[in-house]
Amino acid sequence: MALLEINELSVQFGEFKAVDRISYQVEQGQVVGIVGESGSGKSVSSLAIMGLIDLPGKVNAHALHFDGRNLKTISAKERRKIVGADVAMIFQDPMTSLNPCFTVGYQIIEALKIHQGGSKKALKLRAIELLNCVGIPDAENRLNVYPHQLSGGMSQRVMIAIAIACNPKLLIADEPTTALDVTIQGQIIELLLNLQREKNMALVLITHDLALVSEAADKIIVMYAGQVVEVGSADQIFKLPRHPYTQALLRSLPEFTQDKARLDSLPGVVPGKYDRPVGCLLNPRCLYANDKCKTQEPMRQDDGQGRQVKCHYPLNDEGKPRYE
Ligand code: SF4
Ligand code: MG
């Protein structure tokens, strides 16, 4: 059984579907990349899994299972036990996630206390161990510093220490490097992947940067306007994208853009609350859209080899649409 099983999850704010019937699984110890431009519903779908959507947001799902438990039917109390312990999340901006009024040590120890007990001394030792684990030198002294005394990269390491404090089975990292310098970004991704391997923890890496997940991810989920448009292995997605949106994302990567004309392969922006098109949501921006795309929503097609594509005309091996 998959560690996380999501079936037809939707998140709605009034009439607006921020997440629109998405389905995917995460296996134990797997690295999954969720990619898409901003506004594609990547973060909102993860917050829904964590139970962090506030009213008036409405969450619906056919199934939402984690580690054999049905997140839809368990009590709020049980859910709180799971969230933060078995499933943990880190966010884009570590500076806003840490409380500026408390020392690093205090915040790590508080996180430990919520889910596991122990003497003061044991908690402190565990906090030092965690800081060592995320590559923070001079850990014992660092316990006494305040967040503003740390660089962005160091703050994100502290957030990761807090996230892994209870040995989660799943860590969701939402744009974990977007707020950081380019040189630090690689180090943070490497740290996350090392922890994932050491602890055999599943890692969901949410990013707008397809290049970031190209080497790391076992599976890639491409989202557009609240929907999952393609799922496949990194190999499948990078060699032969089947969805026009995935193809356009790939073409916008530096190594694919020797052909400058192709930088414009995806004009426009993700539709918002008031401009959701009829038919396929990509049709106003899609190079290959025809009349059917403008009137009928494409169904998800499964090739039986782990690849799913939500398009009327999935691309062939030459990268051209297969019109009927
Ligand atoms: Fe493009 Fe049509 Fe496929 Fe949508 S269904 S991605 S508009 S070809
Ligand atoms: Mg986001």
TrEMBL record:
Q: Which GO terms describe its molecular function?
A: ATP binding; ATP hydrolysis activity
Entries under SMART domains matching the protein: AAA
PROSITE patterns cross-referenced by the UniProt entry = ABC_TRANSPORTER_1, ABC_TRANSPORTER_2
Bias-annotated ranges (Basic and acidic residues): 296-305, 315-324
Q: What is this protein called?
A: ABC-type dipeptide transporter
State the InterPro entries in the record. AAA+_ATPase, ABC_Ni/Peptide_Import, ABC_transporter-like_ATP-bd, ABC_transporter-like_CS, Oligopep_ABC_C, P-loop_NTPase
The cellular component terms of Gene Ontology attached to this UniProt record, alphabetical and capped at eight, are: plasma membrane
| Alphabetical list of Gene3D superfamilies matching this protein | P-loop containing nucleotide triphosphate hydrolases
- Pfam families of this UniProt entry? ABC_tran, oligo_HPY
* ABC transporter domain boundaries: 4-250
UniProt organism field: Orbus hercynius
Region spans: Disordered: 296-324
Q: Where in the cell is it found?
A: Cell inner membrane
Q: Which reaction does this chain catalyze?
A: a dipeptide(out) + ATP + H2O = a dipeptide(in) + ADP + phosphate + H(+)
Lineage, top-rank taxon, reads: Bacteria
Where would you say this protein principally sits, based on its record?
Answer: membrane
Which NCBIfam families does the protein's record reference? Answer: oligo_HPY (TIGR01727), PRK11022.1 (NF008246)
Organism lineage: Bacteria, Pseudomonadati, Pseudomonadota, Gammaproteobacteria, Orbales
